[in-house]
Request: fold
Amino acid sequence: GENVEQHPSTLSVQEGDSAVIKCTYSDSASNYFPWYKQELGKRPQLIIDIRSNVGEKKDQRIAVTLNKTAKHFSLHITETQPEDSAVYFCAASIRFHQAGTALIFGKGTTLSVSS
Amino acid sequence: DGGITQSPKYLFRKEGQNVTLSCEQNLNHDAMYWYRQDPGQGLRLIYYSQIVNDFQKGDIAEGYSVSREKKESFPLTVTSAQKNPTAFYLCASSTFMDFNNEQFFGPGTRLTVL
Reply:
C-alpha cells in the first residue's frame, strides 16, 4: 500500500538552531501535504500545509518545501524555541476507492529543543 | 480546537468485551475519520466516512466497526476480535473538498485493556 516515510525519528537541537524534518511519499497522485504538531497527551494540530502546485510555503519561523519529482517534502523550523518541543507528523493525501481522499501519516519526529 | 468532541477521555475494557468510542462534530464537515496511535507508529487509519450512511476501511480495520447515521456523529466500536486494542484513538473531520483535506482532530480517547 501507499506509505509515507519520515526522518529522523528523534531530533535534538539547541535553542536558536534550525531543525529540518524530511518525508518521502509513494503515491504520485498525492496533492496535499500537511504537517501536524502534537504535544504530549494532546491532539495533533495543523501547523502548515502545502499543495502540489506550490514548491515552498513559509509562515514566520516555519517553512515547508515540496519536490514532486522526487516525491519528498520537508519542514524547516528556524530560531527554535523550547516551546517547539513536540512530536511532528508529516502526511500525504491519497485517494481511496473511486471517490474520497484520506491522509497517510509518517511515524513522527520527536523534536527536543534545549535552552 | 473546538468543534470535535470525543468521549470518554479514558476507557477500560475487559478482554472479550466490545466498547464504543464516541465522536461528535459541529463543524458541518462531511468527512470523518478514525485513527489509532501507538508509540512510535504515528497515526494509522482505521475507518473513514465521506458522507452519511457510507464508510470505508482504512489500513487497520480488522476488529473494528463504525456507523455513520448522522453527519455529525461517527462512533467506533472496538470488538473482541481486536487482539491488541490498547492505544490512543483519535477522531478527525474535514470538509469534503478534493483539494483541501485539512483535518481537525478531537482530543482523543485512551483505551486500556485490563
